[in-house]
Structures are given as C-alpha cells and as structure tokens.
Amino acid sequence: MNDRLFISTLRLLPKNALSRLVGRLTDARLPAAPLRAAMRRFARAYRIDLDECPPLETYPTFGRFFARPLLPGRRPIAPGGEVVVSPVDALVSETGVATAGRLVQAKGIDYGVDALLGDAALGAAFEGGAWATLYLSPQDYHRIHFPLGGRVTGWRYVPGRLWPVNAASVRQVPGLFTVNERLVVLLESPLGPVAIVSVGATVVGRVRASFDPAVPCTDQAGARGVQAHDYAEPRPVEKGAELGAFEMGSTVILVFAPGRVALDPGLVPGARVRVGQAIGGPTRTA
Question: Which of the following is catalytic: 19, 86, 198, 250?
Fold first, then answer.
C-alpha cells in the first residue's frame, strides 16, 4: 500500500475511538497462560530483550507489559549537570534549530513550535532553539525520562487527533505533531528552559505522567481546549528520573532554549539512541 492510499484509508477510521478501544483491551485481565503467550509472541516479533525487564509473571495485563519498567542499572545515565541525555529508547527522526520558530517534520513539511506547544507565548520563548524528534517503535522501552535535572515548572495537555506517527504519516500529514494529542512538560534546567513533548498516536493515545499524579492522562474522550498548569512551587527532578510512560509507542520531541544547547553531531536521522545516552551539551557561547 503506498503512502497516499494508506493515509486515505486512515482518514475513514475513527482513530481516537479505536485507540480507546485498544486501550481497554490491553487493560483486560486475561487468564495467565494466554496472556504470557501473547507477551512472548510480541517480544519475539519485535525482538524485545526480556532480560532487561522483570519476568512476564509480574504483568497482570498486556498494557502493563508494554509500558514495562527496566531492571536497575540497565540504562546508565551519562554524568554531568550540563550533559543532555536521551529521554527515551528511540530512532532519531529529525533534528535542527527552530529558525523563525519552525521545526522540520519531513522533507517539504515544517510546523511552528508555538503550535506544537499549544501556547503562542511559550513558543516564542523557544524560537531559535535546538530540537530533536525521537520516534519510539513497538520494540522500544516505552517509559520517558528527564533529559536534564532541574525543576518542572508546569505542563500543557493539548487534545487532538491520533494519527499514526510512522514514516508514511510523517511524510503525508501536514503538521502531524501539532494535530495529534500531546502532553508538554516544561523543565527549568541548568541549560535554561526545556519543553519535553510526548505525542500520542493511533492506539497510543495514553501518556501517563509519573512525576505528578495530578497531571491528566491523555486520550480523554470529549476533551476540549488546552489544559495549562504552572506550579506555584516548581517540582525538583533529577536527570534520568522517570517522567512518564506511553501506553503503546509514539514520539517525543525535545525543544531547548535558543543559544543554550548544541546537539551531538551523531544525532542524525536514522541513528538509534537509548535512555541516558549523552546527546548534547551547552553551546560554546552559552
């Protein structure tokens, strides 16, 4: 199926309702034997290293397995208060600098950082900053970690569609990451403000935050308008600490303050990164 036919077919599907249905199914408590068999088949199909996580017997549902934790020590965090680390296990999709506030989605398609963050004033603060788009496939570990230490100053929940975020959709759906539902977490770090954007996708609607249980879980039926919250007392977090989890997979976009962060030269489209791996640091002029 070519890209255009794939997207045309998807336009006909109730993607948000389908995602919520899949979410309910992955939350279903099945008998232990068929549940473990399904998890093993999934792990074989996507070459998941089961030695990195707790045993299958510990997961009461398939959804818990998909958002599984790692065993201690499996993702060392690169040291240094000004060393940026990858927040996820992922494939690098695109990177760059938000010149004139624009980020690249794919060849010939860009979008505004203000639209991504759901906040025009907030977007202006990140205009000209470095950014990186990181894609999580089904084989990846699906928890999200903080790329720097500091203080969480607030968050934005932006309701929207749930298009897939695979290569075909990225090439064919203009402004995909500004159309899909997402959670924006705002971090004040040693390298200035950082926006950590978790983008939902088809059958990947839910993003749960770990640092504050009051943050709404995404994929809310009937949600309207951006929900914004700024903490009166920002919440301290350590680099590498868990931010949240995708209940299925998707995309994380990091956006940094202008002139503060230089991304590693090896962070190019197609490269693979893992949680805790150094991906950037301060610019020489910062």
Answer: 250
